[in-house]
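User: What would this chain look like folded?
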Amino acid sequence: MTAAINTKVQLTWLATDDRIEVKQFYRQYMPYARLLQKELVCVLTRADSASANSVEITSSDITHSKPIAFEIVASARIRPIGQLSILTGMLVHPNFRGQGVGHRLMRELASVISDGKTYIFALAHLESFYAQHGFCAVSSAPNDIAQLFLKYQRDGDELVLMGFNPTA
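Assistant: Here's the prediction, encoded as structure tokens.
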């Protein structure tokens, strides 16, 4: 069981050249993940270890990047697929799980994925988590998304194809 860690975190969108630390983060906790140059990558970094009752997130502009100076708390990637996108690689550091960090990250990402053109290949046990943030299971998707989903399904994990529905 992870002990509660109260801290402030900051959301940062990384430029392609500023991804060394996040690559190491994924290598350690999600070794099968591959970061692509064309993906948008964001991280929540530990900004302050002072006592607080909740996790706070401040947002930086999506077009700017700051060097990572603190521990990565969570990360997510948005991969463009033509006019659509896939939210992928959402990962919360094991020490911060169960503290609402994933929910905070999803709320912060809502402004980026609010156009209704974003999909996710959710692990089956996380379907209800993503449903809380506007994603719904779909039986079909545009061809590029559907083909990629079929490829991922062949890798063995039980996945649920979900699309973002801004009215959900």
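The radius of gyration is 16 Å. If you want, I can go into more detail on any region.
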